[in-house]
Amino acid sequence: MPTDGENEVSVQLPYGPPPVLPDIEKQLKEYLLCPERLPIHNYEQAQQFWPRVPNPDSLFFCELSPLGTTLKVDRDPTTGEILQFREVPIDDIGCTARNSLSLKRAPQPFNESVRGNDSNFPFLPGGFPELLVKDVSDEQDTDIDFENDLLYIAPGFTRGIEFKADGHTRISEDDQTIEVINEVKEDERIEEEPSPAFNLMDVMKQEEDLLGLWKENSTQIQKDDKKDKEKMIIESMETGEDDALKVIPEKDNIPVLKISKAPPPASERVAEWAEKIDETLPVLDFQQKIPNPARRFHFDLDPFQQQAILKVEEHSNVFVAAHTSAGKTVVAEYAIALSRKHMTKTIYTSPIKALSNQKFRDFKKEFQDVGLITGDIQINKEANCLIMTTEILRSMLYQGSEVVRDLEFVIFDEVHYINNAERGHVWEEVLILLPKDVTIIMLSATVHNTLEFANWVGRTNQKMMYVISTLKRPIPLEHFLYTGTGGKQKNDRFLVMDGNGKFNEAGYSQAKQAKESKKPGKDAFGPKGPRPGFSQKQEKTMWEALISHLKEKDRLPVIAFTLSRNRCDDNARCLSVDLTTQREKSYIRVFFKKCLDKLKDCDKTLPQVQTMKSMLERGIGVHHSGILPLLKEMVEMLFQQEKVKLLFATETFAMGVNMPARTVIFDSIRKFNGQITQNLLPAEYIQMAGRAGRRGTDKKGTVIILCKNDVPKMDDLKSMMLGKPERLTSQFRLTYSMILRLLRVEKISVEDMMTKSFMEFKKQTRQSDYQRELQRIQDEIDQISVTCTKSGNDAELTDLYYSASEYLDHFFDTRLRLLSLPRALKDVQPGRVLLITYEEHVNKLALLLKLETQKREYKYHVLVLCNNENDYSGDGEIRLSVKTEAKKEEKRKKSAMWYKMLGLVNYEKVFVPDGISEHAVLIIGPNDIFEITTKSIKVNTELILNDWLQRQQPRFKDKEPGPSCMQAVQELTQMSLNCSETSFVQLYKDKINDIDFVKKLKRMEVLLGRVQSVKVANYPHFTEEFESVFLRRQLEKERDNFKHLQSHQSMTLYPDYQSKVQVLKNMGYINEDCAVDMKGNVAIKMRNHELLITEIVLRNILTDLPPAEIAALLSCLVCQQRTRFKDDKDPQMDLGVSLKDGIKKIKEIENTIKKEEKNCNVEQLPAINQDLSFELVRVVYEWAKGKPFSDIMTYKVDVQEGIIVRCIQQLSETINDVKDAASTIGNTLLKSKMEDAQKAIKRDIVFLASLYTSDTTLPKQDEIDNENKDE
C-alpha cells in the first residue's frame, strides 16, 4: 500500500515559491523614490488620536511635605531616667543640594556622591559665615507686607506702575517728578542745617587709652558696670543732677600703666590669623601630650615635625615650610593615620597627575585604604584617603561632593606651586571654598612670606593658622664650580660655598684662573679666535671625565639637571661609560621585560624604548616630558633602587616625590622661561640643588655647576645661591566657568570670591583704616559746613574747581609723555627757562640747571626767585621757625593741588619778586613744569649748581653767590618783569599717532580756556572764597576715594569681571539679569576653552563628522606644543576636505570670540591665552583610525613621544566634556559619536595603566640571582 508520503506530488516552480513576506528591497525603493505614497499625505487616516481616560483621583495625590519638627528626649543627667519628650523644630528643613549651602542638607544620590553634580550648590565655605544666616533665613517662612514689599517693576522690565496709598489710584509721571524734587529739597535742607549737638561720650573716649599704654580689666561684669556708670552720667547730665560728679572708678578698675612689657613686633601684630612657632624648641613632653599616637615612626622626629603633629592633633591649620628632604611628608602621613582613627576622610592634593600616581603607590604601602581620583580613572573612590590633583578637588567643591561631609583634613603638597601663572589660581579657589570644619595642612619648600600667606588662609577660613619652618637643611650642601675638560684636568672642581652657607671667594678666584689658563689663544683658531660653545665631542669628553672623577670620589648616584629636553637626550646618548655591574644589568633586564609585557610587539620596537633600554643597562637614565610615561616611571623606580647612577633630567624632576641623590650637577644655570633666557631664580636653584644629600645615608650633599665656556659672574652666583626664597604671590584670575558657576549659585557672588582672594588680601585688611579715615574726613566736611559761610559765588567757584581738577588730572597723565617727545628732549636742556608751579612757588620762571634720568624718571634741578621774607636775616643766616600745630594744619590743607590750581587760574600772572630777590634751587618733576619758554640764559649752569651746593654747607653759609649765579638771578628777574614778551614752546605740534592721546590734549585745551575765562578770579577776595570751596571739594574727593576703596569697584580684577560678564551677555550665555541660560549651562561643564567648545557644540560642527575626525579637530584645544615638521611641510596639506573645513570653522569661532573680548576690553594674558595649535591634527586622526603608535612616529614631525601621549590623554578629558555637553542639550547622536571617539583613542601604549597604580612590583635581586644560577 502506498503511504501518505508517496501520494504527495512535488512540484518545482521555475521562479521559486510565491513570496510569503513582502520584498524589503522593493519597499525601500518605493519609500525613497515615491514620497507621495508616504502615509503623511493620507491625511484622512493621519488624523487619529487616542482618547484620554479621565482619572479624577490623580488630582488628590501630592508629595508629602517633610516633617518640620521632631521629638527630643530630656533625661536625668545622673540616672539617665527619661523626664519628658519635647517637640523641637528641625533645622534646614527641605534643604537639598539644589537650594542650600548647609552641611545638614539632604544627601545626594549614590552615583553623585564623589564627584558631585554641576547643578549642586557647594557647601558653605569657611570664609562666608554670613551666608549661613542668609541661607537659613531664605528657607524660613516670613510674613509678607502686601502694602510695602510688593514690586511695582516686574523683573526684566524697565518701567512699572506705582499706586497711591489707596491701592488703586495710579501715580502719574508728573506726580513722581514732583515727589522726587520735594525729597531732594528736604535732603538739602537737612544737610544745610547745622547740628549743634555732640556726643559727650565720644569726647570722653578720645581721652582714654592714650598711646595704648593703659590696661583695663576686661571681664564681662566690669564691662557691664562701666556701661551702667556711663549711662548714669548721661542721665544725670540730662536731668541736672549733681550726684553724677561723685562717680569715681572703683579700686579694681583703675587703669594700670604697662611699662614692664615691651610691645610685640610689628610682624606679629599684623598677623591676626597666623602665628609662627619657634621650630628650634624641642617638645620634651611629646609622649605625654600624645600617649596614644595615631601612627608611630621608626625614627626620632625633628622638633618641627613634633610641633606640626601636635597642631594636627588639635585640629589646627598648619603651614609647614621646610627645606627639601627635611621630612614634610611625615606630617601628611600622621594626618592620614589620624583620620583613619577618627573614621573620617583625608584628601591629599598634588600639582601634577604624575605626582598623584607616585603618592598613591607610596601611601598604599603604608595605608591600605587609599584611593586615587584623576580625570580618567577612579580607584577605590570610597577610601579613607583620596589622592587627587588640585583641579579635581576644586571641581568636587563647586559640585557639592558628598565627600566633603566626612572630610577632616586636606593636605596641599607643593603649595609654592601657587606661583604658577597658568594654574596657581586653582589653589586660591580651593582654599576659599573649603568649609570651616576642614583642617588645612600645607606643605611647601621654604618661601619668603609664609606668615603673610598663612594670615590670608587663616582670615579666609576664619581659623588660626600655625606656621612651622626649618632654619637649615638636615644634610648640608657644598657647592662647587667644575672647570675640568678631561685628562689631567678631570679633578678641577673648586668649592664656592660651604655647608654653612658661606660664599668662598678664594675658591671662585681659583676656578676663574683655572678656566682662563685653559683658553686657547687666537693662533690656534685663526684670526677670529675660539668658537663659542662646546662641540658634541667636547661635551662627551667633559662628561666622561666628570663621571670618572665622581666615581673615584664615591659621589654617585648623580642627577644632572639639564634645562633642555634635546640636550638631555644628546648628553645621555653620547656617553659610552658603563656604571652598572652584571648583577644590576640582569636586574634591569628582568624589570624592563616585565614592564613591557603589556605592550604590543610593534610598540616594543619604538626607537625611544630601545634607546632607553640600552642606556638603563649602563646605569644612565633620562627624565623629561618628552619621554613616554611608562619609561619615565621605570626610570624613577630604578633610580629609587639605585640602579640608575646617572640621571639626566629637567627641572620637573625636582618637584614631588623625594628622590634624592648624592650629587647634583647643573649643566647650565641659564634657562629659557618662554620669553627670555635668564639665570635661574634662587627658588629654582634651591629646589633642584636640594635633591643632593640623602638623609640617613649621606653626611653632606654635593652640588656642581659646570663651567663650559666661562665661569659665571660672582654676583650672579651669590644672588642665586644666597638669594631669598621666592615670595608666594597671587595668580588669581577669573575664568568664564567660575563666573557662570557663581552666577548660577547666586548665594556666593563673584565679587565675594575676588574679595577673599590673596590678591585683595592687603586691601581687605585695611578696610578698618579706610573706615576711620572716612569718618575723619566726614567730620572735617561737617565742620567746614558749620564754620564756613557760603558766598554768592559758590556755584561759579565750584565749576572752576571741577574744570581745573579735570584739567590737572589730564595734565598729570600726559606730561611725562609730552616731555619725552623729541622736540621736548631737544629744548629742555640746561640753560632753558621754564614756567613751573612747585608747592608755594606758583607761576615762577625757573632756570634749568641739570636734568637727571633714573629708571625712566625725570628730575629737574632748577633755579627760582624768592621774596626776601623773615625766614632770612639781613646777614644771610637762615632762621629756623617753630611750626605750630596751626601752621602744620595750614600746610597740610594747602596741598600741591591747591598751588597748582592757583597757578592755573593765574596762568598769565608770572611771579615777580618784591624788592631785592632771593633765590633757591629746587628739584622738581615733570608734573611741576607748566610750560617751556623759548628763552634761554647763556650761563654755566654747572657752576651755579656747585655754588649752591657749596653754600648749603655750614662753613660756607655766609659766602656770597658766584658771578654766574648773580647773572642768572638778574636775567630771571628781568624776564619776570617783562613776562608779556615770553612765548612758549608748542609741544602739541609734534606728530602724535595715538588718537586717544590727541583727544585728551584737545580736551585739555577746552578746559584751560574754560578756567582762564572765569571772571570771579579777578575779584578781591577770590583766594579766600576759593580756598573754602577747594577744601570742601578736596575732602569730598578724598571721601569718594575711600568709599571707592571700600567698594567692589576698587578690586584689581573688577574691570575684567565686568568685561567678561558683558561678553557672556553679548554671546547669549547669560541674560540681562545675569541669569544663566542654556549656553551657560553647557559652558560650565568645560574645563578649558569654555566659550570655544560651547560654540563648536551648539553650532553643530561635529555632529556630521566621523569619530576620528572629531577627535582630530578637538586636539587643537589641548595641543600646546609648537611643532616643526622636519621637511618644513604644511601639516594641513595632507588632510581631507572635511578636516580642513572643520579647522576653518573653528578658527572663525576663535576669531569671533577674540573680537568680542577685544570689544569688551577683556584683559588678554599672553602666558595663558595662546592661539590654537593644529599641528597634531593628522597625528591624532591616524591614531583614532587605529594605526599603531610606531607607525605614527614615522611621520616627519619634530614632536617627542611623550608630548604626543600627553596630548592624547588630555584630549580624552576634553572629549568627555563635550559628551556631557551633548547630553545636556539632548544631542544623542553627538553623544554617541563622542563615546566612539573616546574608545578609538583610549588604547595601547597611550593609555597604558601607570606602574604606580597597577600591580606591577619590583623584582627582588635574590630571585634574579637564583634564576641566573639555574640557567
UniProtKB/TrEMBL annotation:
For this record, the Gene Ontology CC terms, alphabetical, are: Ski complex
Q: SMART domains, alphabetically?
A: DEXDc, DSHCT, HELICc
Q: Where is the composition biased (Basic and acidic residues)?
A: 513-522
Oxidoreductase: present as a keyword of the record? no
Main location as per UniProt: cytoplasm
Disordered, as annotated region = 512-536
Keyword Phosphoprotein carried by entry = no
Domain of life, per lineage: Eukaryota
Q: Where is the Helicase C-terminal domain?
A: 542-743
Cell compartment(s), UniProt: Cytoplasm
Where is the chain membrane-spanning? none
Pfam families assigned to the protein according to its UniProt record, in alphabetical order: DEAD, DSHCT, Helicase_C, MTR4_beta-barrel, Ski2_N
Q: InterPro entries, per this entry? A: Beta-barrel_MTR4 (IPR025696), DEAD/DEAH_box_helicase_dom (IPR011545), Helicase_ATP-bd (IPR014001), Helicase_C-like (IPR001650), P-loop_NTPase (IPR027417), RNA-DNA_Helicase (IPR050699), SKI2-like (IPR016438), Ski2/MTR4_C (IPR012961)
Q: Which GO terms describe its biological process?
A: nuclear-transcribed mRNA catabolic process, 3'-5' exonucleolytic nonsense-mediated decay
- Residues forming the Helicase ATP-binding domain are 309-465
Q: Which GO terms describe its molecular function?
A: ATP binding; hydrolase activity; RNA binding; RNA helicase activity
Which keywords does UniProt give here?
ATP-binding, Cytoplasm, Helicase, Hydrolase, Nucleotide-binding, RNA-binding
Instruction: Name the chemical reaction catalysed here.
Output: ATP + H2O = ADP + phosphate + H(+)
This chain's protein is named Helicase SKI2W
Native organism is Gryllus longicercus
